[in-house]
Structures are given as structure tokens and as C-alpha cells.
Amino acid sequence: MCAVHRVGQRLERAPVVTQTTVNEDSGGQPARRSLRTASRFARSHPRLGLTTLLSPPVAWMLVIYIGSLILLVVSALFALDPISQKPTSNLTVDNVVDALTNISALTLFVQTVGTAALVTTICVAISLPTAFFIAKIAPAWIRRGLMVSMLLPLWAGYMVKTYAWRTMVSPGGGSEFAAEGRGSGGFLQSVIGWTPGFSWVSVVIALTYLWLPYMMLPIYAGLERLPSTLIEASGDLGAHAWTTFRSVIFPLLLPSIAAGSIFTFSLSLGDYILPRLVVDGRRRVMFGELINTTLGAPNQPLAAAYTLFPAVTIVVYLFAMKRAGAFENL
Amino acid sequence: MNTGRTSRIALGLWTLGTVLFLYVPLFVVARISFTTSNSISWPATGWTVSWWKEAWVTEGPRQALIRSCIVALTATGIALVLGTFAAFAMQRFVFFGKNAVSFLMVLPISLPGIVTGLALQNTFSRTIDLGLFSFRIGFGFHSLVVAHATFCVVVAYNNVIARLRRSSPFLLEASADLGADGTQTFRYVTFPLIRSALAAGGILAFALSFDEIIVTTFTAGSGYLTLPQWIFANFARPKKPVVVNVVATFVMAVSVPLAYLAQRLSDGE
Q: How many domains does the structure of chain A reveal?
């Protein structure tokens, strides 16, 4: 608690710093003069400048974010009062033990990691040929337009796109798809006569759709940096297209793929809204749904214990990707 | 490039397929918003703007839209200040724990939304006792702003630091050599340099906040519905499903041009 307090004092000091900067444009003559003195002072004391610049964002992140994460871990250690359903002040490791030994929760988590990994793999598989075409084959005049068209859907809105996939995969028959003359179902059913329906397959397709641009962008950037002469040299030395891809292009693209996978993997791993729109019924397909229902049970400590699964997974994953050079390619 | 003709055509078709995959669902949603029937089934029947009128006069989506905008604007403002500070510190100084700071910035956006959401919800709902005084943050507009600003900082930070890295460090020295003091250098050299990066970061942060639903659901409390939450609350309500399509189409129509503008700005005008 003492550390939190100390950081809290730093946060209290922070707004003063912010105001000084804001005043810069509006200040009159005296204010400007004192500011000039301040800036001269800061220049002769570089460490002070660093502290001034760094403490507001770092204090915000530490107090609000890291502080909350620590509190979340702590909250998993409180016992739940069986009658009032509220966390008590008794410390226990039961919740964490419960979470770790619950076979169905573990199975669901493994399945969710599998789903996120599958989504990432599909994103890579779609992005590689597309990004290669845009970066190396497409004529220069359409290159930019094509890349922008890959990125624009990113901003159409998560909810909009999730809702769109509900319309796409709906098998029809529900009241909102009430048959009125022609057409009684979603787009896929009507146009190609097949739909995965409200199922796990739809979750994979929709997640791939949502996060594909995040994979496309780093791979494209990586390919753009890759000199075409390397590929030509490989061809001149007698390598087939596949060999060139496997032993020249792919290894050089690995950091870019790692960068993209941070988004595709992590964003897929925690999702619990999307399954509710593209899966009907009681079956849980994503771990996030379990956290959410546990929270609503209400069993906040157990829900907090469950969040340790994705949180630890992602932190480990981030460290691994940092080693793979992902952060320089974000 | 000596890629064979067949493989070039194959790759071209693959790219075309990707474009279709990305745009067909959006087109379907937009087309259905003009349907004459009261169902969101395909094929859509006829053309009418009556659902658009319906959505316009409905209280729910309009209020949610305004709320989303206010939250996004406030969060963006905070994120720009914090992100710019961090970017300048990281670019101009070498210090212990630099790697940790860059990790700290990326963390809120890399951890799954449900972890961030639950962690913040837990903190906001608790009475925090600091010894001298205790307080409870609670839920509503302010908790949403704090949560959104936290994961928006990284966007502002990334844009500003990318611009600082690309610009020559000699500009500052040149400015000082010409007799400018720190304030003047900031006003006439540094700020114009990062202006478009700030604008781009601001638009992206706005879009990120405007769009967010998972952390939002956890930190908004009950009464405060943003636009994505409104869509979520209404998607299954069979009474007027097409109104949801109208709102979704509206979001696309507004955010996609904004994103394009941000792209242009971050490329450096």
C-alpha cells in the first residue's frame, strides 16, 4: 500500500506539469518570460526534463493500469461469502486452485488458445500471397490504393463487423430473418447455398475477418523492405518459387508475422462478445464467456482467477514475440 | 520480377478474393439498411430510406452516438498529452528502464480486453484507502474516459515517436544555433514537425475509443450506453432489426473517411 501511496503523490504532482505546458500558447508576456527561465533551467538540468516528460504517462500507466492488474490478482485471493455472494476480507488460494483444477475450464481455455492460434494461422495464410502481390507484383499506381483498401475496414467498427457476420452466416428461420416472400436467411445461405450457421466455424471466420488487416500491414511492410533482388537471386540460382518462399522470403518475414500475431492472437483470445452474436444457444466456445458468466454469477474472485489464464498467456507471448523482433515491426 | 505468368494471375485473383472477403459483409449491412421489409434477410427487398428516418428520430442511438463522441474526444485529449510526453522522453533521453516503459505503453492494448476490463472494473468498484483519505472512483462517464485514455495512449505515442525518429535531430541544434530558446524551438520547429502526427494519432485514438466495446462494458456501469453497446443491446431485439443496420452503416460512413484522412496525415501530409 505504501508504494501505491508514493506513486499517488507523484500523480498529484503531475497535473501541475501538464498545466505549464498548456499555458505555453495562451500566456502573456510575464508568463512567457518565466517559461523561458523555466526552459533554460530545464536545459541545464536534463534529468529534470526527463522526469517532467516521463512522470505523467508513466504514473498514469503504473497507478491506473499496473495498479489495477495487481489489485485484480489480489482480488482473486479473497474468499467469497457464500450467503451474500460478496468477496470477504479472508485470504485464500481456493479460487486460484479451483480455477486451475477445473477440467472443463482448462479444456475451454486450451480450445480458446487453439481458436486464436488457428485465426492467426489463417490470417498469415491469407495475408502472405495478398501482401506479396501488392508489394512485388501489382503496378505502382494501384499499390497504394490496394493497401489502403486492405486497411480501411479496420475502422468500420468492431460491432459493425461482428453484426455484419451475423447477417452473413445466419441460417435463417429466426424471427429477425422472418421470411417475407423471397429470401429467408443470411447472405451465404441465399447466395452460395451453404452457411456454417451459428457455430464455432463462424467464430473463426468472423475473428479472421476482424483482425486480418493487423496481419496484412506488418507483412506488407516487411515485404516492401525486402529487396526484390534477393528473390531474383534465389531464382537465378535455380530455386523454385516454393523454395524461394520457404528459405528466403519466409525467414525474413518472421519478425513481421510475429508483430501481426500479437494483435490477431491476443484480440482473438479474449473475445467474448463476438461468440454471442455468431453462436446461438448455450454452448460456450470462448474462454472470455466463462469469465463473464462467472463474474455475473456473481463470483468476482473466481472470475479474477480465471483472467490469470489469458493474462499470463499473453505476457509470456509478448516476451516471446519481443525476442522474435516483433516490437521493431509494430 | 521473374514470377511466372500463371502464378501472377493466381496471386492477383487471391488478392481480389481478399478484397471481396473484406468488403462484401460491409456492403451487405449497408444494402440491408435500405430494405423495404422488416427483416435483415438477404436478398434485401426494394429501396427506401424509411429505416434511416426511423433511426434518426429514435432517442436511443442518437443519445448513444453523442455519448460515444464525448467519451472518445475526452479520452483522445488525455491520450495525446500523455502519449506525446512519453514519446519525447523516449526519443530524447537514454535512461534506465527504457525497455520497461515501451512495454508498459503496449501492454493495455495487447492484453485481452476482458483482462483490462475486469481489472479496471475491480479497481473502480473498490474503496481505495490511502491512509490519509479514501475514495471510490465508481462508474459513469469519468470511469469510461480513464479506461479509454489508458489504451489510447499507445496510439498517440506510436505516431509521435515515429515522426520524431524520422525527423533530423540536427533541426533542434540548427534552431538553437540561430538563437532560438527552448520555447521558440518548440513553437516554430518541434510543434509544426509533429502537428500532423498528432492529428493522425488523435483520429486513430478517437476511432479506437469510439469502437471499443469489451472494456467499455466493464467500466461504463449500468446507465451509460455508448454506440457499440447500443448495437450490442439491440442486435437480437426482433422488433426493428433494420435500425441496427442503419446505425452500423452510419458508423462506417463516418469512420472510414476519417481513417483515410488519418492515413494521409501520418504519412506526413
A: 2
